[in-house]
Specification:
Helices cover about 40% and strands about 20% of the residues. Mean pLDDT is about 85; it is low at about 180-185. Strands 1, 2, 6, 7, 8 and 9 form a 6-stranded antiparallel β-sheet that branches. It is built from 21 helices and 22 strands. The two termini are about 45 Å apart. With about 525 residues, the protein is of the alpha/beta class. Helix 14 runs parallel beside helix 20 (about 505-515) and helix 19 packs across helix 20 (about 505-515). The longest helix has 21 residues, at about 200-220.
């Protein structure tokens, strides 16, 4: 449904264009990378609201890109007559028949100009307050005077919008915090309202007014009779009580959903979020829909998250476009790595080249921490826990810092497919080193098996020389020929054979090396890998 989003001047986004995938978009990134801001921007343009309130009511100086604001005030201080910063959010939609009547037009920023379906929100200085704004800016204040800004919300056809176009049904679920108002927050009322047919809503609304009229006639009649006998008047007019029939007391703000006979607000936060997601995704399939979910893993146990992922997959329709932010590798793997959208400091990278077989591979092994791999600056793949332990120690001895302090993450394969992880490294463009045993096979043969998954520049494999041993343990012993020192480090007796003991106690040997007060020399292929990861 959404083909392109362009955001200029909003929060972390200076000028970013995002091309979402047609069905599933899983937004991942470090804290403050812009995930929530992206969903907020899309929601603003589609609904004209944020946190259930109109954009003009929520407008504040912190919406504006801080760098653009700083540059503006610096230019003003230098005497340059620059225009104040603005916000411009455009959502380009598919050119469907249902959008043609109201949303199709050429009032967008595309060059060359062409017709497209879409909506646009611009927040810019109000010309009627130009004099007041200039007076404020001349005062020396570095606070942007948003009071003199206006919100202009239009379709690409140049039609002014005051409410969400009926062609666009949008659900926004924030699982991090559940906001409630009389038991049901604005987002849930919005979802429930869209879920019901117009005739159903009319019928319920009329029944609700009939009930209130009945209460006025029957139950308040005696109260009003008593007030007349008391002679209660206001400005000479008699006072009586009646149930309010105004629109602000409509049924959808008075009816409270129940979960297992408990009011919705009293359900657990995880259950509330799950219910909202199911309601949002279960609406009529023929409607074009955008569903945006913030961190659905919050407040959910592993079992509940499993069930939610299954429901998301079951409910996802061909006409639904899903945007999910997450910090969960499990969620990323189960929903599919092909939906990955990586965010970093206000930029968005789309990865659609991951093979279907690799997507299915990690869906069946959702516990592997692929998200760590995606977010790492650089990483190294090792065969098992013992390799991980000694690599961490050798890296520290060589550099004086742990790998993670240099942005290098260490992943133990633990029997996982090396080629699957290397494919992820290739697709995301990460610098990756592979450390593995030679198992008596020439290193060039092992490397050739990996094909273009290693290229020697950004992805490289480092394998111990067969002449120095087939596995990690003899490689370490050959790099440290002082047998007395090795016995001290390993804390073994004179009768024990170091290589045999290490081979029979791989993890314990690695732990003792990692905790030792004595420094050992890394095997040559470990040292080459460290130099490669550091770009040396």
């Amino acid at each position: 449904m959404i083909e392109k989003v362009r955001i200029r001047g909003y929060r972390i986004f200076r000028d970013e264009t995002f091309f979402p995938q047609a069905k599933l978009n899983i937004l991942v990134g470090d804290n403050e990378s812009g995930k929530s801001s992206l969903l907020e921007a899309i929601g603003l343009a589609l609904t004209g609201r944020v946190n259930g309130r109109r954009a003009a009511e929520e407008l504040n100086p912190y919406w504006f890109n801080s760098k653009l604001v700083a540059e503006f005030f610096e230019a003003r201080a230098a005497g340059d007559p620059v225009a104040p910063p603005t916000i411009d959010i455009e959502v380009f939609l598919e050119n469907r028949d249902e959008f043609a009547r109201h949303l199709l037009g050429a009032h967008n920023s595309d060059m060359p100009v062409h017709e497209s379906a879409g909506v646009r929100m611009r927040i810019e200085p109000d010309a009627d307050y130009a004099e007041e704004m200039e007076q404020h800016l001349e005062s020396g204040s570095v606070i942007l005077p948003v009071e003199y800004y206006s919100v202009d919300w239009r379709t690409f056809k140049d039609g002014v919008l005051t409410k969400r176009p009926k062609e666009l049904t949008t659900a926004i679920i924030d699982s991090r915090t559940i906001r409630s108002n009389n038991g049901v927050d604005w987002h849930l009322r919005h979802i429930l309202s869209d879920h019901l047919k117009p005739e159903d809503k009319a019928q319920v609304s009329l029944a609700f007014r009939t009930v209130k009229e009945e209460m006025t006639r029957q139950h308040l009649a005696s109260v009003n009779e008593g007030m007349r006998e008391l002679g209660s008047v206001l400005n000479g007019q008699p006072i009586s009580l009646a149930m309010d029939q105004s629109s602000r007391t409509s049924w959808d703000s008075s009816v409270v959903p129940h979960v297992s006979d408990l009011p919705f607000a009293m359900a657990g936060q995880g259950q509330q979020a799950t219910i909202k997601i199911e309601l949002a995704m279960a609406r009529r399939a023929h409607q074009a829909q955008v569903v945006m979910v913030e961190e659905p893993e919050n407040h959910l146990s592993h079992t509940s998250l499993n069930m939610l992922v299954k429901r998301i997959n079951d409910l996802a329709g061909d006409e639904q476009q899903l945007f999910i932010t997450t910090h969960s590798s499990f969620l990323l793997n189960r929903l599919g790595l092909d939906g990955l959208q990586l965010m970093s400091e206000g930029t968005i990278s789309t990865f659609g080249q991951i093979s279907a077989s690799t997507v299915k591979y990690f869906q069946k092994l959702p516990g592997y921490d692929t998200l760590r791999m995606v977010l790492a600056d650089r990483f190294v793949l090792v065969e098992g826990p013992s390799d991980e332990l000694v690599f961490e120690r050798f890296y520290y001895d060589e550099t004086g810092s742990r790998p993670i302090e240099h942005g290098i993450d260490v992943f133990s394969m633990r029997g996982l497919s090396l080629s699957r992880c290397l494919e992820l490294a290739k697709v995301t463009g990460k610098r990756c080193a592979v450390l593995r045993d030679n198992d008596g096979i020439p290193s060039e043969d092992l490397i050739s098996e990996l094909g273009d998954l290693v290229n020697g520049t950004s992805r490289s494999a480092f394998i111990g020389e067969p002449a120095l041993g087939n596995t990690l343990e003899p490689q370490i012993l050959n790099a440290n020929p002082d047998e007395a020192q090795m016995r001290r480090v390993l804390d073994i007796t004179e009768r024990a054979d170091p290589q045999k003991w290490m081979s029979n106690n791989k993890t314990e040997a690695a732990l003792r090396i990692a905790d030792s007060d004595e420094r050992l020399s890394p095997p040559p292929y470990f040292r080459r890998a460290i130099e490669f990861l550091r770009g040396e």
